[in-house]
Specification:
By secondary structure, the chain is of the alpha/beta class. 29% of the residues lie in helices and 20% in strands. The strands form 7 sheets. A 6-stranded mixed beta sheet has the order 1-2-3-4-6-9. The protein has a 6-stranded mixed beta sheet with strand order 10-15-14-13-11-12, with helices on both faces. Strands 20-28-27-22-23 form a 5-stranded mixed beta sheet, with no helix packed on it. Strand 7 and strand 8 form a beta hairpin. Helix 1 crosses helix 12 and helix 2 crosses helix 12. The chain is globular and about 80 Å long. The two termini are 26 Å apart. The structure holds beta-D-glucopyranose (BGC). Beta-D-glucopyranose binds next to loops. The site of beta-D-glucopyranose has 7 residues, from loops.
Amino acid sequence: MKSKQQYIKLYISAFLLFSIHINAQKSNDSIEKKIDSILSQLTLKEKVDLCHAQSKFSTKGVSRLGIPEIWMADGPHGVRAEISWDSWNHAGWTNDSITAFPALTCLASTFSPDLARQYGFSLGEEARYREKDVLLGPGVNIYRTPLNGRNFEYMGEDPYLASVMAVPYIKGVQENGVAACVKHYALNNQEHWRSLINVELSDRALHEIYLPAFRASVQEAGVWSIMGAYNKVRGQYATHNELLNNKILKDDWNFDGVVISDWSAAHSTMESALYGLDIEMGTGTDGLGLNKENHYDYYYLANPFLEKLKKGEIPESIVNDKARRILRLMFRTNMNSSRPLGRVNNQEHIEVAYKVATEGIVLLKNEEQFFPIQDNRSLTIAVIGENATRSMTAGGGSSELKPKFEISPLDGIKKRFKNAAILHTMGYESGPSEYSRVVPGKLNADSLKIKAIDVAQKADIVLFIGGLNKSNSQDCEGDDRKEFGLPFNQDILINDIYEVNKNLGIILVSGNAIDMPWLSKTKGLMQCWYLGSVAGNAIADVITGEVNPSGKLPFTFPKHLKDNSAHYFGEMSYPGDGVNQYYKDDILVGYRWHETKKIESLFAFGYGGSYTNFELSNIGINKKSYQRDEVIEISCDVKNVGKIEGAEVVQVYIGKPNSKIERAKKELKGFTKVFLQKGKTKTVKISIDISKLKYYDTELSAWNFESGKYDIYVGNASNNISKKKIVNIK
Ligand code: BGC
């Protein structure tokens, strides 16, 4: 029973919500009226001019009416340095350095929507300060194969996790009057052949796996722009795709924002005009450089579009709709006089970057309590591996950054270990960070190795800091990795180091799963992602135990590449034949596949260790039987049974046994992260709206619910379930 006061409180908050809604509605109406008035003053040419680039990262305004240009910047981990007007070269400004935030895989590993909001807000402030109107991020493509060169920019293999993390990120960015631009819509799940490959997949895989994070971005976060992907989907380029843009995005989801092409992803005037593209970017931009004519005028949505409008081959309502959306974007950003000023490189942003970095690091193995490592005068630590000193904000493609500073792992370790002796050597060399080609290093590989063995022999502990990097064929845009194993002969080097020093810990700096033939030889293993400006501090603080790790994997590490479902189905499933590919893995992506087919993983989705231990107990549900419009309330006691404070992520997976359709054994439907002092217990509650358990019914072409028994699994990893409960839903 609720008290009278509770009822009054409920009434007041309902009233406040209602008045906020009414006021928002009034301000929307008045903006739409202003847009009507502007549209009536624009010439056809001026409307068309709004629809395409005028430089690498900007579009024209209407100077005679005081309508500003739109300025965009990458995204998604920090605001990219200024790029030249007509080329990909850096513009060479000296006032464009920023805070580099950790890569989105790391953000996803925190399993903390609160940190995602802080991340988005801080990034939005930096974009605002840099006078950007559109920030090209977040990336929410689903992690389908460990070879995808761009996985590090995305939020893992689970559509629910990616949605829950993307929504607060977007809201945080947009609070600054800067539009987020969620990308790459859709099915850009590999970089290999990204500009040509045609993706064929079932409706269920499309709606249940690959679209939910985009849908949440639109419907829950209210994202103001979205970027069309390079690839084709069912025979049509994604950037101007009738199904994706017109039917799903704009009709079904009521998206009222702007579709921006990926750079050079538009291929036709007619399709761009008719199939939902609003702003064309990046199509052949040597305009003011090599030609007298301004090339931007020859974009598909420039002069050729104008011609077709004039001839009546395309109705004017089409350009009016695009111009209306673009003006709406402006009223939300550069024509919103009350947007805040933003700030950059301030202490608060650095702290957010540090929090995300430390909470995202995942402890994968810790035999004999290898970590944390206590600092003391009699200790000698050998730090071996190129990633101990290599910049991971340079390279990688469009997500490259120019941070004001970047603390390397070696710097961080040297700073934190004030007493121990730190020896360092590279061990291997990968060559310079190159986006489009592999450039071999110049140092002698044998000498590097001999030195590494020598250093390893002299030390009490070896920390091997390796992994992938941001060069071509690694974690880099433009192509995929060529091998599942570690590159640059690191596997051999690790084995050789082990032969001389068994006290070996490995720090992996990467955005992808890798093969680990040496796993049994390492006592400690940490997945450290690309951590941005404060990478070294974060890594060192987790190594020393200053921070207790609490990150959880946002994707599965398979034992063998073939165990991953995209690869299991052979070449036509990944990477395709250069023309088509078929997502034969269907809805069984990542842990859904491993759990359903009982294929053990090396490290499971949701897994991550700690320097303390937790026990989950008293797992309960509020009822045994539900109607389909109800909410399932799950409660669970979490106890920190170890000796130090730490955090655990309680995860709820749901499955439908004996379903009439094919289903994954379990799917993540809720989670919560809980911080606990040593010895303390907390009861956590997780609510799951039953409407979230619907499947996409291909006969109805709509979401549908199947009544019957459901399994509810509560645990701390997809493969580590403390309790299964069964409920009945009518
Ligand atoms: C990438 C986008 C990026 C754009 C602008 C493209 O190559 O795919 O993610 O936002 O370039 O740099």
